[in-house]
């Protein structure tokens, strides 16, 4: 003779198995997405480190060259136009600094961080909402 609780238990088993499957799939999806995020983070860090090292070297070398050029112009014009030579030197350094700051800010704003991860997550959300399968 079947007990009333046995019928409820047999119906709960497939539901529990389905819930476990969904949870397993969700955890696997999260693991894959985190792995992708980690790969992207390491790529961004490597590219950023390389760019910063090259920019630092360029800044040091160009600064030394600019200072040398300004000293040369100042020495050449010292006897006749010393105030003009110093004003040109100052204006050149200010202009170069402002241009470097402007270019640096534009580049920082142009970076799209973790673009592939965001696209994958958007596709995941679309699939979960019942959208097209890819």
Automatic annotation (TrEMBL):
It comes from the Bacteria. Pfam families: Phage_holin_3_6. InterPro entries: Phage_holin_3_6. The chain crosses the membrane at residues 52-78, 84-105. It comes from Tepidimonas ignava. This is Actinobacterial Holin-X, holin superfamily III. Keywords: Membrane, Transmembrane, Transmembrane helix.
């Amino acid at each position: 003779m079947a007990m009333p609780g046995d019928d409820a238990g047999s119906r709960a088993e497939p539901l529990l198995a389905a819930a476990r499957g969904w949870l397993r799939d969700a955890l696997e999806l999260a693991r894959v997405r985190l792995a992708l995020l980690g790969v992207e983070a390491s790529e961004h860090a490597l590219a950023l480190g390389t760019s910063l090292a090259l920019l630092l070297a360029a800044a040091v070398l160009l600064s030394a060259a600019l200072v040398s050029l300004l000293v040369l112009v100042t020495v050449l014009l010292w006897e006749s136009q010393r105030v003009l030579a110093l004003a040109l030197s100052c204006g050149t350094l200010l202009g170069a600094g402002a241009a470097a700051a402007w270019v640096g800010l534009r580049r920082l704003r142009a970076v799209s961080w973790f673009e592939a991860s965001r696209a994958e997550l958007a596709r995941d959300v679309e699939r979960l909402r019942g959208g097209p399968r890819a």
